[in-house]
User: What shape does this take?
Amino acid sequence: MLGEYRIVGRRASEIAASVEYAVGTGELEPGQLLPPMRELATELGVNPNTVASAYRTLRERGVIETAGRKGSRVRPRPASTARGSIRIDAPAGVRDLGKGNPDPSLLPPLHDALAAAARRNEQEPGLYGQTPVDADFARLARAALDADGVPDGPVAVTSGSLDAIERVLAAHLKPGDAVAVEDPGWGSLLDLVPALGLKPVPVGLDDDGPLPGEVEKALAAGARALVVTDRAQNPTGAVVSRARAHALRAVLATYPRTLLIEDDHGHAIVDQLLHPLAGVTANWALVRSTAKAYGPDLRVAVLTGDALTVDRVMGRQRLGPGWVSRLLQRAVVQLWTSGAVDSTAVARSYGRRRDALVQALEERGIEAHGRSGMNVWVPVPDETGAVARLLHAGYAVAPGARFRMSAPPAVRLTVSDLSMADIGPVADAVAAAAGPAPARSYG
Assistant: This one.
């Protein structure tokens, strides 16, 4: 069962250390079946409860996983190569439609906001012991959440959406727990979940968001958390509609102990209404990043949720970075209050280009998705071939493999770098590269 490696130890800590050492050195490989607890206890001459304690420690550390009568196995290693590396580098002369960045021309200049934050810092220096969330930031963030119907909850600040999601997952889950995630979905999240020792469970979606039947199936199978993108879903552009939100809330009401995480990263760049799911389960969180509207390098996100969740996140944050720079928080306050970004105009700009590309592709017999945000998702019969042919035609796109678990092949195009005059030529190139794909749900 274990080949030549022999687990040793008399105490639970020694047995766990022996297994962990062998996993680290590669002597025990991912998927390797461990001896039944009673068998190992007999071999080591210890009480079975000692082995049970060792195995429990290994599960909590994410080293092994147990599947009932199938026994305990060494867990698969988290991917050492991030999905972001699955990309096509655009050589000279090739248009890069694959990076997923916002349109720089729609981002506000930051010098005035940063200067205003610096001037305030001269009057009120940021020092140790102060509250981690700037009072004006919390007030304005909460007012915007209230306007969108997000349930009342304290406000925290994190270094972007992924930081918030990681902290919320870590606040409630332990290694080995299952997390229901959208498929296709955000590649960074699909990397993060296994890196935390958690098990991602794919949930299909359509243009209205996650499919209620698939969410119910995942939760019934034991998923302890669900991550949903409310608007501008990456990569498909899906938006949780009012009817879909009602159906999803009904499912969640049946599983009230589910940890719900909502990602509203499209806030301020979309014109579709938010239909939050929060309030049905005991523990929930909603995060809004400033990246798409104000610039990815700000690294500031608003987090709200139930009091326990936010308290745990902020408590753990205090033991690490302490807080997100109040200078950056005050710069965001300046951006919010100065009208530096016309959200309606930004949403209209992305929407005009995105809708035009979806329509142009459909006119050419190509299925395409993109109800909101800056991305268009195009199912293709042969993902590798389509990417290669588009590159030859002068366009680098994002391979769907960056975003998929079990969903069918596709490619993602970001419209940020396109003008209206570009739409026709891009659609022609995609049609030639992809060929007609049979209509289907992309989940």
